[in-house]
Structure formats: C-alpha cells, structure tokens
Design a protein that fits this description.
Blueprint (H helix, E strand, L loop, with lengths): L1 E3 L12 E5 L8 H4 L6 H11 L4 H12 L4 E4 L42 H30 L2 E9 L17 E4 L7 H10 L7 E3 L19 E9 L14 H16 L5
Length: 268
C-alpha cells in the first residue's frame, strides 16, 4: 500500500522521502492461516511478539506534524505471510533457522509451517515479488522526480531478546540506527542519531539489528538512493507485548519529526 501526504511551505518541490513500514500489520489471509501450525492462542502470542506495533501510526503522525510530503510504503500483511525484507536463497542468513522470506519457524524456534517448497514459491509469487516491485516503482518515481531518494526503514523491537535472535546478550538501546556502507551517508546516520538524542536507553548503531532496506535493483549500485533504518524499542511507547500506547509515544513521534525535517534536505 502506498500513501502520499501533502506538503506545506517547510519544503519546496517534490520530496525525496520514502518511509518503509514492513512489519506493522497483523493481517493473515485465511488460506495462509490454514497452513500455520499454531492454534489461535499461540498465533496471537506470536503476532504480539513479532509485530512492529504502531509503526504505521508513528510514520503517519510524524508526517502530519512535520508538514512534509513523503511516500509511505506499508506492508498490508503480517510478516508471518512473507517477510519482504529478507533475501531469497543463499544470501539470507536467517534461512538457516527457518526464518527466510517465508518463515518456517516461530520466534521461539518452534515449527510454524510444514516444509512445502511449492507453497513457499506460491507465497513469494503472490506477496513477496509484487511488494518488492511496488517499492521499486515508488523509489524509481521519486528518483525521477527528485534525482535522489532517502528511505527511512521504520521498525520496532522488543525490550528483551526473542529466542530466534542470534546474540542474546547484545545491547538493546532505546533507538537502534541501522546503516549500509554504500547507501547510508554519514550525514544521514548522524541526523538520525541526533534527532533521537535523549531517548531512554540511548542510541546505538547496528545494535541489536543492522542494515537497512534498499531495492535489489539499486543495492550497491545507485548512490543517489540513500537509506537508514530506525528501530524503536517498543517499551518506549507501549506496554509489551502488543499492549496500549503510553505517554512515551509522543516523544517517539517528536524524535521522528526532527529526523524527517533534517532528512528531507540531505543531498539537496
């Protein structure tokens, strides 16, 4: 799903901003649900653990407050359908534990799906590849209009590590900034860190998660496509797991407003 927001006098001309919200949905089509090996209670618990709660509202509310225009590409389906940020094949390290683009394992490494290569291929064709094409089309349109693109890859993560995470002891800051050596210029990385300064838990780079989303067609090839990941620790804005917002939600919005207001000018 792609949304477009109006601009005001804070920034003239077409906006280079693309906000990516890949993991905020809990929607699972009935035919996909039928293949999951969890009962309804187990599935609810898994969604509570694995969903990047409220990140869609965080994106839209920050845009509204900033007055900026941006394209928002939001995944309409849960990551338990397919995970659009995984690689296909041997390039995906999480495939070794059953969490490639089509998850076979839960967050606590129990079976989520029975092995079925034909089903997995069908899921990729129905959900993964069309999503990737939609995102690429948006990036290419913005690149054509602006000559540059700044992707803000928006996520959240639990305050305690889930069993599938490789490193169970790494720092879990308030805000994790994920970077790519080719696509994240220092000025973009620093703007993100500065904008969230003062958040509880502090800021860390590529900890506990690293990297940021770039369409494969531009990955390592197109320097005009910049990208940075912003991961927000969930207890900064909600009661975990998957509970209501609390007063920290406003502070998260404020930090993202600061960042977007800086990011829109980078490279101009």
């Amino acid at each position: 799903m792609v949304e477009k927001h109006a601009t005001d006098d804070l920034f003239w001309g077409p906006s280079p901003l693309v906000i990516h919200v890949p993991h905020s949905s809990v929607r699972i089509p009935e035919d996909v649900r039928a293949d999951l090996l969890l009962d309804d209670t187990e599935l609810d618990a898994e969604l509570r653990r694995m969903t990047d709660w409220e990140t869609n509202d965080i994106a839209y509310m920050a845009l509204h407050r900033s007055g900026l225009e941006a394209r928002v590409v939001e995944n309409a389906y849960s990551r338990l359908v397919v995970d659009p940020e995984r690689f296909i094949g041997d390039d995906e390290p999480m495939a070794a534990i059953g969490m490639g683009p089509v998850y076979h394992s839960t967050s606590d490494l129990r079976p989520l799906r029975a092995p079925d290569p034909a089903r997995d291929e069908a899921l990729l064709n129905e959900y993964f590849h069309p999503y990737a094409q939609t995102f690429l089309d948006v990036v290419d349109q913005v690149l054509s209009e602006c000559g540059r693109v700044t992707i803000v890859d928006l996520h959240s993560f639990p305050s305690l590590p889930l069993p599938y995470e490789v490193d169970q002891t790494t720092l879990r800051p308030g805000i994790c900034i994920g970077t790519d050596p080719f696509h994240t210029p220092d000025v973009l990385r620093d703007a993100a860190a500065e904008s969230f300064a003062g958040m509880p838990g502090g800021i860390a780079l590529n900890t506990p998660f690293s990297g940021t989303y770039v369409p494969l067609e531009h990955l390592g090839r197109t320097p005009e496509v910049s990208s940075v990941m912003v991961e927000i620790r969930r207890n900064l804005y909600q009661l975990e797991p998957g509970g209501p917002r609390h007063e920290g939600f406003r502070d998260v919005i404020t930090g993202l407003v600061r960042f977007l207001s800086k990011a829109v000018w980078i490279g101009a």
